[in-house]
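Reposting from the mailing list since nobody answered there.

I have sequence plus structure tokens for a pair of proteins and want to know whether others read the tokens the same way I do. The first protein:
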Amino acid sequence: MHQALLVSEVLSEIFSHLDENLGRYSLSRPSKTQPSLEALARTCKTFHEPAMRLLWAKLDGIIPLLGCVPRLHQLIYRSTSSGRTEDWYHSIEPLSEPETHQFLRHAARVHSLAISFPDDDLFHLHSILPLETCVFPGLLSLYFMVVRPQNKYIYLFLSPTLRRCALAYVHPDLKSIVTRLPALEELNITDSFHSTADERALLSDSVRFCNRLVTLSSPPVDWAAWKHLSSLPSLLRVEIRKPPYDAPSGPLHWDMINFAPFVNVTSLSFQGNTAGYTIAILVDALPWADAEQLCCALSKRKEKQTLETIAILCDHRTLPEPSDNSLTVVPYLLSFTQLRNLRLSPNCCTHLDNDLLLKAVSSWPHLRVLTIASSQMIPAVTFRGLFAALRLCPHLLRLEIFMDAANIDIDPKAESFQHAALQNLDVTLSVVADAEAVARIIFSMLPCVNYVSQRHDFHAAMRKLWADVNGHLRVLNGGDFELHMSESDWTTDGSEGETD
């Protein structure tokens, strides 16, 4: 054996490549990985511990650990056809002290753990353990989807090393929980919709004890908690999810954000029908006029130096708003020089032309994803204006824009410019007059775009026009690609394929 293989850190690095999900926030292991790690663990003493650390690092439930108890092993791993029933654990006696040691044999190796049904029906097996005993001393990530009354068992999993914690709802002991987690960096309350006013008050009190948060995803918090969050230098991402229907609403007061510095935050998100108490940068169902006020306020803040993602998705069901036929929100966004992902979907008649598009993108040199599209927009961007803008966006990966595709004002044979980065293009809100000419422009100037993405909710006639464009593109590319046109091609983050 080579001497390098005697170094545990070297072996761990080599073995880690067997696990495709290692290093991600994943709570289940691909089944194809487990047999390989088991074989390595049995190979020799040198391989045993590094392989076992990876084998037990991520668990989807505690049943694998119960399988280490001889009395339970056959019940757990016996196939259903041999007589095992889904409620086998209801008649099982709690673990004895020796069996508890067997259960805990690999607990120290577990770094990421998901607890949900049927794990919550197994907690009675651990009645010998005091409720406040932490049985996973090295746990880093916990996904605890357990409801009352079994939620009291969460203390078994509260390791002081825990960095990421996802809870089904605001736990009644949340304040006590977060005070036990000095290393907590990510807190996620998954069921924000059903949170009560008392639970949101408890959440707000608890958040103020979190001093190392990097990510928060939760129901709304009060102003005191918001002020605490805004002063955390570690905080990068905040997502405030849509409050319940019975949540009180109020007028917007954008001047109230003046106290909030948000030193290093890169993504602020608010989803809801009102935004009277929050700074937001991913906004869902907000009237366009309010979105303009929001962007105006944010443009005066320090956040403009760090924010990377802005998405304003206005609700088309809101009342019609007066408009001067221009995207008046854009000037407020020009100061966000670190912008990488921008998505605007106005709910009123707006106008974007070549000059405004060029002025906008000249302020965003790091742009990766750009979406400015609405069925109510006036198509005024031409191919010439589009490619003038693309020259200033060398890193752009995904583009969705409403343009005048019927106006062929560029000759691809006379142009030497090619955008080498753009991979996903959606201009299918636009009417096409000459499908072959449009296909040749895309083929010549966008070499990484094999087809134009289409959304399934478009009018059939519009889909047919762009299907003709894609048909010509297929011929130009030698027919060597398949069409995969779906909404799944589009995300806001633009992370896929990104490089800095």
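The second protein, same order (residues first, tokens after):
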Amino acid sequence: MDAQKLVIPRGFALLALAFTGLLVASPIFAALSRRFTPFKLIGVGLTVWTLAAAGCGFSYNIWMIAVFRMFVGVGEASFISLAAPYIDDSAPGARKNLWLGLFYMCIPAGVALGYVVGGYVGNHLGWRWAFYIEAIAMAFFVVLSFCINSPQLKGFAAKDSKKPSTSIKTVALAHAEASQIKTLTPKSKSQNLVVVFGKDMKALFSEKVFIVNVLGYITYNFGIEAYSYLGQKAGSGIYQLKNADAIIGFLNFICGIIGTLGGSYVLDRINATLSNTFKLLAASTLFGAAFCFAAFCMKNVYAFIGLFAVGEILIFAPQAPVNFVCLHCVTPNLRPLSMASSTVLIHILGVVPSSSLYGKMQDRLKNWRTSTLIITSILFLAAIIWGIGIFMNSVDRSNEKSEDDEVEEQEEKLETKADNNSVLV
């Protein structure tokens, strides 16, 4: 009994340590996006990821793996903070959500592929080679990231946007104009990065639409994360499925891809306003939870699988739309921080504690059907929270100009005026 009590806190400590790199690095990459282009930062993150993955292969105990896994989270953080804003900038206006859906589809696909490939490699070459192979594969993308000459994200002044001044032009400028240009230095350059980060955080958390969206997202992850940990066990405990891991895992993989792409496609088709996005989030989660709830009430295993599959497709539909809200409820310069903060909050308040709490609940109830019905009921609450967003005065702020953009425009106007009035000495 004493040994069992020690397993839970130790397992929770390992899980928390593994997420530390992700949670700490996400806002750091968001802050650095003011000064560096996205793919340079992603390249740095993936370099750390590659070295950490190789380190996992060299580890000789579980704590070493956990520490290296923490640094793997650093690489993931660069993608989480910067990839979605870059896609939002690059995608055609009518296909933004579909592009986001293709990106977020890689999460269930990658997890499922990892189980298959990791298991095969582990059985034939040893578990260490699973880490070595993924580190070698990622090395190509590290080089590619540093080779891509990506533009600065929308909302931040480009580093080379300001033309260099020659000594002739400097002499020619009127004193008043020179003084005016000097005072227009962007805050992100003249102020300490930590001070700017604090102001950005204050601006972000004053956005009510962002708060409601993330509260719904936390609740959603608190419910859906349990399916990853307990879904297979519940399938085995309730329906005595012989291959519960394979069946539930396959359903999660297929339904995750269909649901993620389907939700993003539908949002593009119905006009992706924030109000419409909240309607999709609330409706898909509500009906998805209803189908899953009905599935776990079924006594027939085939009825369970059919209803559960439909429910999972609907439940996965919010994957791209919820991040669309994070990107479009704030000004462009706050998008990386919005994505990073959302990720930190859903992990700290949703993903990390859910498995431990649900495990303790099942230990007390000792009834898989009751436990899964309670878990599924959490999703109804997420649908209600997102439903509140439908009635909010939400404005798409993705095209609003940031301070950096306004300063850059004023500088260009003054420089043009100075060029026209300049006199060669």
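Reply #1 (J.P.):
I read it the same way you do. Residues 1-10, 161-179, 181-190 have pLDDT under 50 and may be disordered.
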